[in-house]
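Justification of resources, computational component.

The compute hours requested in this renewal are based largely on the per-chain cost of generating structure records like the one below. Each record pairs the submitted sequence with a full structure-token output. That output is archived, and it is also reused by downstream analysis tasks.
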Amino acid sequence: MSYPGIREQGIYQQVVERIGSFSEDDTRKWGKMDHAQMLPHLADGMRMMLHGSKTSPSGLFRFGPIRYLLLHVMKWPEGKVEAPSGAFETDPKGLEQDRAIVVNLLDDYMKTPPDKLAKTHPVFGNMKPKDWDVLLYRHLDHHLRQFEC
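The structure output for this chain reads:
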């Protein structure tokens, strides 16, 4: 199985609609993150993709074949992975404001030329534009499914 990237036909619009449907009434299916943390967490991830990370890559996931499998092929575990440093820096501002921030960052990502995205990820190391596109889609999808949206 190969996962789509956020820039593939129809994926961006589908994700924006799912973000729009997210509510505090949605049931969390796994993990410890609560409703108020989810959108700020997604925003932190997109900021890192757009502006880079202060953390240097380390660990086995940064090696090409392993990175490729984790980003493009393997199913991600539900509630078993600890987020990297910087993944929970933004405090919640309320559902509607957090939703607007995420959609605005997603729009910024879509407008950013692929060669202007960050060059490295703190866990996955050197990233190609297609890697970022797939990671962004998968990260958004993962947490939207976590809350059944």
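Residues 129-146 form the longest helix (18 residues). The chain has a mean pLDDT of 90.
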